[in-house]
Amino acid sequence: MIKFENIVKKYGDTTVIDHFNLEIQPGELVVFIGPSGCGKTTLLKMINRLIEPTSGKIYVKGKDITKEDPIQLRRNIGYVIQNVGLFPHMSIKENLEIIPKVKGEAPEAIEEKTVRLLKLVGLDPDEYMYRFPRELSGGQQQRVGVARAFSTDSDIILMDEPFSALDPITRNSLQEELFNMQQDLQKTIIFVTHDMDEAYKIADKICIINKGKIVQYDTPENLLKNPASEFVADFIGKKRVWNNPEVIKAEDIMIQNPVKVSPRRNVLQAIEIMAENKVDSLMVTNKEEELIGLITLKRIQLEDRNRSIEEIMERNVLTVAKNDSLVTVLEVMNRKKVGYMPVVDTSGKLAGLITRSSILAALSNQLIDMEVEF
Ligand SMILES: Nc1ncnc2c1ncn2[C@@H]1O[C@H](COP(=O)(O)OP(=O)(O)OP(=O)(O)O)[C@@H](O)[C@H]1O
Ligand SMILES: [Mg+2]
After folding, report:
1. Residue 182, CB half-sphere, CA atoms under 13 Å: how many?
2. Is the CB of 11 within 6 Å of ligand 1?
3. 53 φ, ψ to 5°?
4. Where are the alpha helices (DSSP H) in 190-266?
5. How many helices (H) and strands (E) does the chain have?
6. Which H/E stretch holds residue 196?
7. Which of 334, 373, 374, 339 is nearest to 358 (CA)?
8. pLDDT at site 364
9. 32 near 202, Cβ under 8 Å?
10. H helices within 121-160, ranges in order?
11. Which residue's C-alpha comes closest to atom 3 of ligand 1?
12. What are the Cα distances from residue 125, in Å, to 85, 94, 117, 181, 191?
């Protein structure tokens, strides 16, 4: 959808964007984040040609943007700038309708859209449509700014620190609003912020930038789990994984090769296998490696040694999926009062086993990695 290809921007001898390469897929919300002056605004402004690169190319929907008329290009890309940029002498309605009018959309359709967009950003159209920007609070103006970016009907929206001037509560509600709108409308959005918490709340992917270069481009989960460098770890905050247990997945805490047994074995053999492996339970899997049951030493000890595992195993085994979060796993284990939890992949194959001690081991590793102090 949007592709930066080897973009360099120099002012005199100073390189502010340094061989920047990035591809953004349709419908993704990508957050640009990095220290002040790292080049975020410059990158955004290059997409709608408010700034031209020194070298390199930008493609929007596969087309080299230098081949397009800049005015036309801008009309088709929503842009929210930090201080909103509403026209002060125009009503909210006029502010929202200016681009659709220029584009020649039908008047009734425009009016209908204005009402819909105001509702979408949580402003009552009857109350606010005919007001002027100065008659709105800062947060309400920001909402109009967001609505205006969507009024272009463009698939692409650029947002440069749109919520930075807001109080935490308004900011939170606008983040929610944006997230929900994005779920419904599936725009491609580049969102610039200084605030990592904001990035985590809204981003599909986060692009961490330093000195005009990408330091890491990844999903929020992967950034938390595998920061590519000290810079990233510092930037996202060392304690963050600990603060976000939902990013720790079942597969991160499971034992990879739990001891298995075939359903055709008998009780005697199963007890032998347990003793050999120093475990008190076994996963029963079929030829396809699918989990079909479970046996525990406590239960099978009382059984006739010749009975087959198939006859006596517990069949309704509770499982979790590989990408269920630690929060889910703990919740299920506590609710069902079980001490272990098999993990299966999407095709039902046994992937691993979570036990209380595997959870503790994984968490203490995390803590050592993160150098959390108590
Ligand atoms: N017209 C210009 N002439 C010279 N240098 C410029 C010009 N415009 C921007 N710069 C420099 O380019 C670098 C990147 O600026 P940019 O506005 O993209 O940063 P940013 O990441 O958006 O920062 P912030 O988070 O503070 O908004 C900065 O060091 C800035 O000083
Ligand atoms: Mg900026």
Report:
1. 22
2. yes
3. -70, 155
4. 196-202, 220-225, 230-236, 240-243, 250-253
5. 17, 16
6. helix 196-202
7. 339
8. 64
9. no
10. 125-128, 138-151
11. 11
12. 20, 13, 9, 17, 26
Q: Is 125 exposed, middle or buried (0-12, 13-18, 19+ CB in 10 A)?
A: middle
Kindly report, residue by residue over 200-239, the tens digit of the pLDDT: 889 999 999 999 999 999 998 888 878 888 888 888 775 5
37 lines ligand 1 (CB under 6 A): yes
Walk along the chain (374 residues) in steps of 10 and give the mean pLDDT of each run: 96 96 96 93 94 96 93 86 78 91 88 90 92 88 86 87 78 82 88 88 94 94 84 74 73 89 94 90 93 92 92 93 89 85 93 86 59 39
In one-letter notation, the amino acid at residue 292 is: I
Other Cβ atoms closer than 10 A to 109:
10
Q: What is the pTM of this model?
A: 0.69
Q: Which domains does the chain have, with CATH numbers?
A: 2-244 (3.40.50.300), 251-364 (3.10.580.10)
The SS3 assignment for 273 reads helix
Cα atoms in the Cβ-side hemisphere of radius 13 Å centred on 23: 3
Ligand closest to Cα of 194 equals 1
Q: Ligand 1 atom closest to Cα of 82?
A: 27
CB 42 less than 6 A from any atom of ligand 1: yes
Q: Does ligand 1 lie within 6 Å of residue 41's CB atom?
A: yes
Per-residue pLDDT reduced to its tens digit, 292-344: 999 999 889 889 999 999 999 999 999 999 999 888 888 888 888 888 899 99
> Which atom of ligand 1 is closest in space to residue 38's alpha carbon?
21
* Minimum CA distance residue for ligand 1 atom 5: 11
- The CA 37 to ligand 1 mean position distance, Å, reads 5
Tokens of 79: 């842009």
